[in-house]
Each structure stands twice: as structure tokens, then as C-alpha cells.
Design brief:
The protein is mostly helical and about 250 residues long. It has helices spanning about 1-15, 20-30, 45-50, 75-100, 110-115, 125-140, 160-165, 175-185, 190-195, 240-245; strands at about 105-110, 145-150, 170, 210-215, 230-235. The strands form two sheets. Strands 3-4-5 form a three-stranded antiparallel sheet, with no helix packed on it. Helix 3 crosses helix 4 (about 75-100). This is Zona occludens toxin N-terminal domain-containing protein.
Length: about 250
């Protein structure tokens, strides 16, 4: 009965460990505390910092290993934070566009299949993030907001995201099974290109200097107008990359 329920709640309240529940509530409130935290920043201020005149490279690390022990953190909170951040930066890009300005920024998402899996998830927060990403990649290009999705798998990444991309870079490791089939669909069944891709060597298998081969599709080069995939070996990073691109004596 209702009286019994009220009695149980009252008993639980009287017998509760106040210190335990204080620590739980403290871990929640610490999500919103900035004072005394090194490098802590409000999300709105972070978006303004990204969209400012002095362009910055900002890395947002949401790994659980970096979270203080006195702060509540789980997958649901992580997905809410990611969704809120993407919403804010999308709105900032739209606002600048209305003022005849472009945001001229690029969002890079590593392990993208974790945030935009092909299969539907029971986690509503994750599904919300995926829909925000899909909507963003469809609508924000004209605002000067670009997207780069990095993933170790093609078959696990939502098709709607893959279909909206203009440039693809494929490294070693997609030449077998369902990954091979997903790759074939993207390159339009070009069997010669697929066979050449399957000849890529594992960069970790070499004893000497490691080489990192890639196959690219899209307007990444003046030579790509025909739609034929291009193949290249990436420069050794960072030494060769810095020397060739910035004319440094390394």
C-alpha cells in the first residue's frame, strides 16, 4: 500500500549512510565545478575558443583513465557531453554563417564506430549522439565546419555517415571478410583497385623502415577527377612530414 511504501522510504532515509550519499552527490556536482581545477573550462567558453580568430588545435580526451576519482563518469554522461558539445559548435557555425562568416574548423572523431555504430543501440544517449553526427555532416559543410571520422572498421560504422563523406583514406587491414565487402561497395566494385589494395603489407611486419600505404578516393588530388582510386605511401611522421611540408632541416 501507499502507507507501506512511505514507511519504507522513511526507514531507508533514517538508516542511510550520510557520508556515503554525500560522496555520491559530490561526484555529481563536481561535473559542474571549475574552481580549483587545472585546465577546466565551461563548454560554451570552449566553443568560443575554438571559433575565435586565433585558430587552435584542441584535443578533448574523454577517456575514463583521465577522469578524477571524485567525479562521476560513465558512458551515459560521456554521450551527453559529446552531444552537447557538437550541438553547441554546430549552432556557433550556423550563427557565423548568418553573419556571412565561416567557422573554418574541422572536427576529428577517433574510434568513430563507437559513437556512430551501424546497428541500433538500446542506449538512448548513444543513439542521440549518432543522430546529431549524421545531421551535422549533412548540414554544416556550408557553414565551414568539416568532419573527419577515423575508424578501424567500415562494416561497423553507420552507412549514413559513410555515404556523406567526400574523401576516403583506407589504410591496411580492410582486405578480408565483411570489411572487404564494405570496401568494395565504396569503390564501386573496382576489382583491379581492390586487388592492388589487398597487396598492402602490414606496416608492422617490416624489419627496416616502416611504410604506411593508403588508397584514397575523392577530390584529394587533381589526378582524382576520373574517380579512380589513388595509391600512395604516407611520409614518415613526424620527421619527413615536417621537412617536406614546412621546409625544415631535420
Amino acid at each position: 500500500t501507499g502507507k507501506d511504501v512511505r514507511q519504507r522510504v522513511q526507514n531507508n532515509y533514517r538508516n542511510a549512510d550520510k557520508n556515503k550519499y554525500y560522496e555520491i552527490w559530490k561526484s555529481v556536482t563536481n561535473l559542474f565545478r571549475y574552481e580549483g581545477k587545472e585546465n577546466a573550462i565551461n563548454m560554451h567558453d570552449l566553443v568560443k575558443k575554438i571559433s575565435g580568430d586565433s585558430k587552435k588545435l584542441i584535443v578533448i580526451n574523454l577517456s575514463e583513465t583521465e577522469i578524477p576519482q571524485d567525479t562521476l563518469w560513465n558512458d551515459s554522461i560521456k554521450h551527453i557531453v559529446i552531444g552537447e558539445f557538437i550541438n553547441l559548435i554546430t549552432k556557433e557555425a550556423e550563427l557565423r554563417f548568418k553573419n556571412n562568416e565561416l567557422l573554418n574548423s574541422l572536427i576529428i572523431i577517433d574510434e568513430a564506430h563507437r559513437l556512430a555504430p551501424r546497428e541500433r543501440s538500446d542506449n538512448e544517449d548513444l543513439e542521440n549522439v549518432k543522430e546529431i553526427l549524421i545531421d551535422g555532416i549533412r548540414t554544416t559543410r556550408k557553414y565551414g565546419l568539416g568532419w573527419m571520422f577515423i575508424s578501424q572498421t567500415l562494416s561497423s560504422l553507420d552507412r549514413r555517415i559513410i555515404e556523406q563523406l567526400r574523401i576516403y583514406l583506407f589504410g591496411y587491414g580492410l582486405g578480408w571478410g565483411v570489411e572487404r565487402q564494405a570496401l568494395r561497395e565504396i569503390i564501386g566494385g573496382a576489382e583491379d583497385a581492390l586487388r592492388l589494395y589487398q597487396m598492402f603489407r602490414d606496416p608492422q611486419s617490416g624489419i627496416g623502415t616502416k611504410q604506411y600505404p593508403f588508397m584514397s578516393i575523392g577530390p584529394i588530388s587533381p589526378l582524382s577527377f576520373s574517380g579512380t582510386p589513388l595509391f600512395f605511401n604516407a611520409l614518415n611522421y613526424p620527421d619527413d612530414f615536417m621537412r617536406v611540408n614546412f621546409k625544415l632541416n631535420i
